[in-house]
């Protein structure tokens, strides 16, 4: 437990746990509405916020939050108005955000390429006291939204048109998902870095859904996987001097591969059980007349 | 100002016109569904029947004309729990696994809104699942279901709010025989307890005995509004194309007839 000694590691581990919880918690709704790469776009936009933070000598985390939220709202507006060239508009937003960030960091007095790299790929030693406070506040917001409104967010992400006809405030909920995703990006920025943030929103969810049948189990399992890989990645990066972001993402992908391998025999067993059930009802020796045909049955 | 009475139709479209991508789809549609009525909206692909239904619930904006739900102008209508909507879908699944119960429970949100579900809400969800005969599959992932069972999930989701009016967009598309019978039975029970129904259909099929009135659309205009055109034979309907409910896919279109 030697890794718990240095103060910077304690801060890094707190940040890591919060990232492990929040990224899959909002990521599951993005995956559900098939916008798995939205986090990636927000990460690009947040870069301009980091640059502004350096230029104005304020906290890059809060600046990145402000810019990422504005970018996420803009993305949601582009989606609402269903512009036919919506993808082009998004491309402008993403690459403009990334290019702006790089430029701003380089013209600021305090910023350097080393700084840039730490924001792009994450860094343990640079998580400051101030960062931890900001990350805790932002993570609390993400957890409140994703758990408190999970039923409503589920409905909107499952079938938006149906959700509108139930009278839910669908526009507000969509904006809330976008804003929460933006906030999560800045929570995760210090540990995994802006370029790999999206992976932590998507990969734990993809891993969890290999073996789960329900949304609830997928949610819990993806948060467990997220927390496990961020903690393991952070500790590994302390001992091995490898970048934490890359380590965490590769561990998450390893979890995905292991669970996928486990899922195949599990699915086979389920199929066999289902088949056995069916064989019983079709038993020709049975005196009981056959029940109503199940829709899954194949007529021979 | 006229007082809302129980004799107000549950849905009324007056002079409804709508366009999709600049192309006019509805050209002045008048239709009404009265309390306790089961109305089928028939017509060929592209005749505007789906658009008519979706404009009635505010999902397609009208370019002119009015919509009233339960005697209230659509713009002012807020009592969405009175409506159970079954959109045209081939699947009830999303990008993440979800059980039958989880999907059906989302239909109850028109009553619970932002509050937590209570016992009565959970019971309503169980009843809706039971109505479509999926109780034994309630904890299964919807992605493990057949096409007809997906449709049953979508209908149970609409029933979870215990609506007075059911609006269904092609509930029989791609549905196997067993599920068709379940759906007809479910609908019969809803009608027996006083529900009104507006459903878009390709052909009357097994639902025929339930239907009080049929409205036929052609090129965005109502060409028939009255008893189901059984005397004619449904195959003689204008623009009838031979899609049978058990056919999983759309008919092959040559472009000559469509």
From TrEMBL, chain A:
Keyword flag Ion transport: no
Gene Ontology cellular component terms for the protein in this record: ATP-binding cassette (ABC) transporter complex
Keywords carried by this UniProt record: Membrane, Transmembrane, Transmembrane helix, Transport
Compartments, record wording: Cell membrane; Membrane
Gene3D superfamilies: ABC transporter involved in vitamin B12 uptake, BtuC
Chain ranges passing through the membrane: 12-30, 62-81, 88-107, 132-150, 219-239, 245-264
Primary localization: membrane
GO BP, sorted A to Z: response to zinc ion; transmembrane transport
Region annotation Disordered: where it falls in the sequence: 277-300
Family, per entry: Belongs to the ABC-3 integral membrane protein family.
Protein's UniProt name: ABC transporter
Organism field: Streptomyces fulvorobeus
From TrEMBL, chain B:
GO molecular function: ATP binding; ATP hydrolysis activity
A family per Pfam: ABC_tran
Keywords: ATP-binding, Hydrolase, Nucleotide-binding, Transport
The name this protein goes by in its record: Zinc transport system ATP-binding protein
InterPro entries registered for this protein in UniProt: AAA+_ATPase, ABC_transporter-like_ATP-bd, Metal_Ion_Import_ABC, P-loop_NTPase
Annotated EC: 3.6.3.-
Annotated SMART domains: AAA (SM00382)
Start and end residues of each ABC transporter domain: 11-244
Region (Disordered): 226-258
Matches recorded under PROSITE patterns: ABC_TRANSPORTER_2
ATP-binding keyword on record: yes
């Amino acid at each position: 437990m030697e890794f718990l000694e240095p103060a910077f590691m304690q801060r890094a581990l707190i940040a890591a746990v919060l990232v492990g919880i929040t990224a899959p918690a909002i990521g599951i709704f993005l995956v559900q509405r098939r916008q798995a790469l939205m986090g990636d776009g927000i990460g690009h936009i947040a870069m301009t916020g980091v640059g502004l933070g350096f230029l104005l000598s304020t906290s890059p985390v809060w600046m990145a939050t402000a810019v990422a939220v504005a970018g996420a709202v803009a993305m949601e507006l582009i989606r609402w108005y269903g512009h036919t060239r919506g993808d082009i508009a998004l491309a402008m937003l993403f690459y403009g955000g990334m290019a702006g960030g790089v430029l701003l960091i380089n013209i600021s007095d305090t910023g350097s390429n080393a700084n840039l790299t730490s924001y792009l790929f994450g860094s343990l030693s640079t998580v400051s006291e101030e960062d931890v406070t900001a990350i805790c506040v932002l993570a609390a917001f993400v957890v409140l939204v994703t758990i408190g409104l999970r039923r409503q967010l589920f409905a909107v992400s499952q079938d938006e048109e149906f959700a509108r006809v139930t009278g839910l405030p669908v526009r507000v909920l969509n904006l809330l998902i976008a804003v929460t995703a933006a906030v999560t990006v800045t929570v995760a920025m210090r540990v995994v870095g802006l370029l790999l943030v999206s992976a932590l929103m998507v990969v734990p969810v993809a891993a969890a859904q290999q073996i789960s049948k329900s949304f609830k189990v997928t949610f819990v399992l993806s948060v467990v996987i997220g927390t496990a890989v961020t903690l393991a990645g952070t500790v590994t990066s302390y001992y091995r001097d490898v970048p934490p972001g890359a380590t965490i993402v590769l561990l998450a992908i390893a979890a995905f591969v292991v669970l996928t391998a486990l899922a195949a025999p599990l699915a086979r067993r389920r199929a066999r059980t289902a088949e056995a059930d069916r064989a019983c009802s079709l038993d020709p020796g049975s005196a009981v007349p056959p029940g109503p045909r199940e829709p899954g049955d194949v007529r021979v | 100002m006229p007082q809302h009475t129980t004799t107000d139709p549950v849905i009324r479209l007056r002079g409804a016109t709508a366009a999709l991508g600049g192309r006019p789809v509805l050209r002045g549609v008048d239709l009404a569904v009265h309390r306790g009525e089961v109305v089928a909206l028939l017509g060929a692909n592209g005749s505007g029947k789906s658009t008519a239904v979706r404009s009635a619930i505010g999902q397609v904006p009208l370019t002119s004309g009015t919509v009233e739900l339960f005697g209230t102008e659509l713009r002012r209508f807020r009592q969405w729990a009175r409506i159970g909507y079954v959109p045209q879908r081939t699947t009830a699944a999303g990008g993440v696994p979800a059980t039958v119960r989880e999907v059906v429970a989302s239909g109850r949100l028109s009553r619970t809104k932002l509050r937590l579900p209570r016992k009565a809400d959970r019971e309503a969800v169980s009843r809706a699942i039971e109505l479509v005969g999926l109780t034994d599959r309630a904890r299964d992932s919807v992605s493990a279901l057949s096409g007809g069972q997906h449709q049953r999930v979508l209908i149970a989701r609409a029933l979870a709010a215990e609506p007075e009016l059911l609006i269904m967009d092609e509930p029989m598309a791609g549905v196997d025989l067993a599920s068709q019978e379940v759906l007809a039975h479910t609908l019969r029970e809803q009608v027996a307890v006083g529900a009104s129904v507006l459903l878009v259909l390709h052909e009357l099929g097994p639902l025929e005995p339930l239907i009080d009135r049929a409205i036929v659309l052609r090129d965005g205009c109502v060409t028939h509004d009255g008893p189901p055109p059984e005397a004619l034979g449904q195959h003689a309907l204008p623009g009838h194309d031979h899609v049978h409910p058990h056919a999983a896919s759309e008919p092959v279109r040559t472009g000559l007839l469509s």
